[in-house]
TrEMBL record:
Residue spans of biased composition, Low complexity class: 324-333
Stretches for region Disordered: 309-333
Alphabetized UniProt keyword annotations: ATP-binding, Nucleotide-binding, Transport
Species classification: Archaea, Methanobacteriati, Methanobacteriota, Stenosarchaea group, Halobacteria
Name of the protein in its database record: ABC transporter-related protein
InterPro entries xrefs: AAA+_ATPase, ABC_transporter-like_ATP-bd, ABC_transporter-like_CS, ABC_transporter_ATP-binding, P-loop_NTPase
A GO term, aspect molecular function: ATP hydrolysis activity
Family: Belongs to the ABC transporter superfamily.
SUPFAM superfamilies given in the database record: P-loop containing nucleoside triphosphate hydrolases
Residue ranges annotated for the ABC transporter domain, each copy included: 7-229
């Protein structure tokens, strides 16, 4: 039996002038589920979150949260962290959380919330004197003072250092374990892979793929790969009975892509066979690294495909029409 949806969007459409922000976006999130929205800048993630939280009215389609329209929901049951959130600088972290707690009938203790976000020792520090990552954690805390049933987090860990990020991750995991439904947007594929029960990839205003991280990797992530750091030409691998190519430019991270080859569809137990192949043919190499596909591979495959399709469409437009809308990408997230 399918779990009852707590967050629903059906065929949401939203345009800003000639810019299409949402184009038939639909999703369904069950109670206690963590759903991560990923996608390129301008894909529509922030507009979708705004439509689901009642801060943007869609042009068409419908949205429901906890069975009600977003504008009708009891705000005590909802927590929302916008991507851009700037509370008053001249209040301490504790004073900020106390202020937001005062907006609700039965709030949590601000000191308990500070402890949850790993800031128990900085409660008396003015917001403006906190680091950027600490400020973001205070912002996360502000969404928790009402102990919400549904939590929307737009890029929650932006600017947070690795240790602080893991604190927020554990907090989100604990909230979901206690039954809180979480919808978050992120550009961090490790964050989505760790936290999300399901992931939806948004491109050009609609969800082009959704599923568990494992299912998306199986369907779109490609094969395992063995990267060999070598100056040898691809011709040296002509008689190897598995696919061999240069690494994707997105993965070479500043080094010359001609200094490595990637052997695909290789299981760990077969790496020794490749080593024997290299040695038998006198192919010099400096290192080997094996990796399974992950959510980043899924993102790159689907985002690249969408970008290519978008580029092809733009190439078919008259030059003056394409130039007439320099903000075609729409929003920043």
């Amino acid at each position: 039996m399918e779990a009852e949806a707590v967050v629903e969007a059906t065929d949401l459409e939203k345009t800003y002038g000639e810019t299409v922000a949402l184009s038939g976006a639909s999703l369904s999130v069950a109670g206690g589920e963590v759903f991560a929205l990923i996608g390129p800048n301008g894909a529509g993630k922030t507009t979708l979150v705004r439509a689901l939280t009642g801060t943007t009215d869609p042009d068409s389609g419908s949205a429901r949260v906890l069975g009600d329209a977003p504008t009708a929901i009891d705000r005590d049951r909802l927590g929302v962290l916008p991507q851009d959130f700037s509370p008053p600088d001249r209040l301490s972290a504790r004073e900020l959380l106390s202020y937001y707690a005062g907006l609700y009938d039965d709030p949590r203790d601000p000191d308990a919330v500070l402890a949850d976000v790993g800031l128990a020792d900085t409660g008396d520090t003015w917001y403006e004197n906190l680091s950027g990552g600490q400020q973001r954690r205070v912002c996360v805390g502000s969404t928790l003072v009402n102990d919400p049933d549904v939590l929307f987090l737009d890029e929650p860990t932006t600017g947070i250092d690795p240790a602080g990020r893991r604190t927020v991750w554990r907090l989100i995991e604990d909230l979901a374990a206690d039954g809180t439904t979480v919808v978050l947007t992120t550009h961090d594929m490790a964050e989505a892979e760790r936290l999300a029960d399901r992931v939806g990839l948004l491109a050009d205003g609609s969800l082009v793929a959704r599923g568990t991280p494992d299912a998306l990797v199986r369907e779109h992530g490609g094969s395992s790969r063995l990267t060999i750091e070598t100056a040898a030409d691809l011709d040296a691998f002509d008689d190897l009975e598995v696919p061999v190519s240069r690494p994707e430019r997105s993965r070479v991270r500043g080094r010359n892509s001609e200094s490595a080859v990637v052997v695909r569809e290789i299981a760990p137990a077969e790496i020794g066979t490749i080593v024997d192949y290299l040695e038998d043919r006198g192919i010099e190499y400096t290192s080997l690294s094996w990796a399974e596909p992950d959510l980043e591979n899924v993102y790159l495959a689907l985002a690249d495909r969408t970008e290519l399709e978008h580029t092809d469409r733009a190439g078919d437009e008259p030059a003056d029409e394409a130039a007439a809308d320099p903000t075609r990408a729409g929003e920043t997230a």
